[in-house]
Amino acid sequence: MQKVADASNFPRHAVGPQAPGSAARNASATQSNDDHNPQRSKRAVIARKLASLSAAFLAATILSSIFASDAGRMRMLSSAVPEIGSVIAFAGFGLDQVTLKGQRYALVADIFEALDLENTRTFADFDAAAARTRIEAISWVATAELRRVYPSQLVVDITERKPFALWQEADGRTSLVDRDGRVLSSMGRHDAPQGLVRIKGAGAPEAASGLWEDLARYPKFEALLEEAARISRRRWSLNLKNGAVIELPSGAVSAALQRLHDWPGFEGISQRGNTIVDMRTAGRIAIRPTEPVEPIAQQHIGPRNISDLLEPAG
């Protein structure tokens, strides 16, 4: 077993005895020589500074090599010994400038918070993978690419998500969502961009992309659609612009749309509106009005009393 000895156990270098007062005389002689030769004193100061700079450069070179080969170990070392950060910055690893590209809707403050620059002074301290993960957790961000531009610039390339639908929740609040069902931001119904899909109900954002893939095969349905409502997280109810409603089954949506497309009666529904087309039962299309029909007032058949049977007296 290899033993590691503590430095305090090593013997000190022996120092030979000196005659009393010899040390004082030597110091006095050195001081006297420096006073009589100021040029030599100046050269000594310059030599000491050059030695310090050389040592710092050598240390920076060694640390740079460690950083280039093992950034994780370098971050640990920099955290353990804060003074190393200054040496690393001197070696050209300082993080002095950040450039954002591709950002439009994501908040700049959120991106800089994700970069955690307050705790990062150099590239040796910077964990690019962790920063990228934090940035991509921002609602508007799809992907983020981080790269260094020498000597001290960090470039962050952002690819943002695209709004797909305006989603209305049960409490009436509306939000922008993308095709993956990710909520991007809250937005008023009348402030949303034109051309977005309108959906509502719990579970609608996650299922909307699949529905629109089916609708894309039938352009006439898509053109008539005003809003799609998710019912009990299981099925869709399509509200058309003319007031008609199509109740789709919980499964086999594409097959149901194909039956509706082939049904001759749909042409009249698309023109008349105010009709519910119920397709929840396989192989059957049920039609009923959207508004309940008031019962016809009952006609009085026959006399109400005996006097109606009697002819008026002449």
Descriptive notes:
Strand 4 and strand 5 (174-177) form a beta hairpin. 38% of the residues lie in helices and 20% in strands. Residues 1-30, 66-71 and 308-314 have low confidence and may be disordered. A 9-stranded mixed beta sheet has the order 6-5-4-7-8-9-10-11-12. It is rod-shaped and about 115 Å long. Among the domains are: 93-160, Ubiquitin-like (UB roll) (Roll), CATH 3.10.20; 165-289, Rossmann fold, CATH 3.40.50. It has helices spanning 22-36, 38-69, 71-80, 84-93, 108-115, 128-136, 204-215, 219-224, 253-262, 266-272, and strands spanning 97-101, 141-149, 153-160, 165-168, 174-177, 183-186, 197-200, 225-231, 235-240, 245-247, 275-278, 286-289. It has 10 helices and 12 strands. By secondary structure, it is an alpha/beta fold.
Structural key phrases:
rod-shaped; disordered N terminus; alpha/beta; 10 helices; Ubiquitin-like (UB roll); 38% helix; 314 residues; three-stranded mixed β-sheet; Rossmann fold
Sum this structure up briefly.
The chain is α/β, with parallel strands linked by helices and 314 residues long. The protein is 38% helix and 20% strand.
Q: Give the N-to-C terminal Cα separation.
A: 141 Å
Q: Write the element-wise H/E pattern from the N-terminal end onward.
A: HHHHEHHEEEEEEHHEEEHHEE
Percentage of residues in strands? 15-25%
Helix content: 25-40%
What is the residue-mean pLDDT, rounded to a whole number?
76
CATH architecture of one domain: 3-Layer(aba) Sandwich
Low-confidence stretches: 1-30, 66-71, 308-314
Fill in the CATH topology of one domain: Rossmann fold
From the alpha-carbon coordinates, what is the Rg to the nearest angstrom?
A: 41 Å
By CATH reckoning, the class of one domain would read Alpha Beta
Helices and strands: which structural class? alpha/beta
